[in-house]
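Quick board copy: two proteins, each given as sequence then tokens.
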Amino acid sequence: MAHVFVLVCLWHLTGVLGESVSVTEGDSVTLHTGLTELMDDELIKWKFGAENTLITKINVMASSLTVYEDVLDGRFRDRLKVDHQTASLTITNIRSEHAGVYQLQINSLSKSFNISVYARLPVPVLIFNSPQSSSSVQYCSVLCSVVNVSAVSLSWYKGNSLLSSISVSDLSISLSLPLEVEYQDKNTYSCVINNTISNQTTHLDINTLCQTSEGTYPTAVLRLVVTALMGVAAAAAVVLLVNDIRSTRA
């Protein structure tokens, strides 16, 4: 009886409507029963979804543990683990199809867990755009991009201060956010993508990504210009040679 009283008090403290649990896709999550040991008269069931599909059952009196891996087209196959001492349920390598409501029943008591599964976040990619200038000041134009994301925010930070941000809800799309900084700027900038439970950050190295200074071009552009000029000079030499031959024959 004391065991049941403690369990009822614990579940009351965690909320009558159950617990909300967030997890990243590919990780494992454990739904805790709050028990420290199992009593002989307990029948424990874990159910999933709106249809309350039975996925595990523990009959302590019969010393039996059953895992129903083939239900729901086998989506839980090789993913469910039950603690023999506490009956807590662990779901391994979780996917979006495992998101939803899980119901725990211990005899006449019940409690629910609502699991939300978030996709693993990509690392933001920084793309250098052509240099911009305003009077005597040159700017480095950088685009921060991520692809195939949903329920995230993409932001630029100057140190710890937020500069700009863009968000997307449930649609899986690509996001881009521009930034312009002076070439001589010594501040630290970073692009951050985040959702409810995690984030990924890429830091902007102005000296590496924006290899230019006032009055000059980036190395790659300079080489291209020199090559083009050499080609023009060679073409001019050919024209002069042809004209010289024609003059001689005349």
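And the next:
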Amino acid sequence: MYRPTTKYEWWLCGVLLTQAIVTIALEIYIFVQWQSWVTPTIIQVVVSYLIPINLAILVFACVYEFILTLDAIHNKNNILLFAICISNACSFVYAVMQYQLMKSTTARLFGDRYGYPTLIDTTRNIWPLIQPAEIVVCIITGLGTLVMCPCLYFLHREYAWAIYKCVHGSRKTRMRYLFYEIFLVLIKLNFYFLIGFILQYNLIYVHLPGLEYNLTMCLIPVSFICMLLGIYFVQNERTWGVIGIIICYLGILAYLISRIIILCENETVGKDMMLLFACVSLVLTTATIVCAVVCITNFDRGFKMINQAKNGPTGDSYLLQTGYISPSHHPSSRPSSRLTLD
């Protein structure tokens, strides 16, 4: 397990860990209240699947962001850190959308119950009970994004100088290594959006177990294995392995295009959210394929040595291990032109 080694790394991980714990606790509370309010006949309407899926996606986002943060500080990946910040801002927007969805859904269920008289416990309305929790989720994700910004600024300065030393100031080497970092960011973020789309599409649109349902669910472990193998093959410069991963992602690309076409031709609850996840995953998959091809052309040009040098046991020990600077000279005191490489 990766662990922080500097003050700002601890701050960043602490913020995301706190956000994840509070969000999970509140989402569990909301889900328990929801389940205690609805009756077994709620499965007659699609909203019975939509609400739990939306709660689960936000929980998965917070946990996945924390895991990615540990990975980013271990690999000193500036681009991944900024991507996590943007992703957390999206989680805030998603939390606000969830608030509006819960408000409108509970109001309609308590009002006309979609024409079904026995969907909920008509003796009470749970919105006053879950509204404070929904508000706190919005606040905690918003504050988390704001607090992350100064942490990322100082970590960027540290990591940019560390990478600069590894490439010995070579601009060409830095650009080649930049594509490698972008590939790692894209393949990891794409996994989240792909899983988010698969869960929504399968449980809301496909709905009933069958061949398509089972095959779609199989994409979850397949995409996870593709992500791990893609990272391994690129880090170890295995050309044929990366080519195999590119072929797999071309298949995912074709699948996403076909699902987008199907969703555009039909009307279903949660269509907008499914299309959002599908389109973002489509863009990320395409960019991942492009970056993978670029990485192949850059193999055998020192990536392995850079990774070994960059991932020292601690941030400070790494900055001293090459002997380019004195122990008393902190990286933040370097000229600003060397600290804006990303």
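Board note added afterward: The mean pLDDT is 81.
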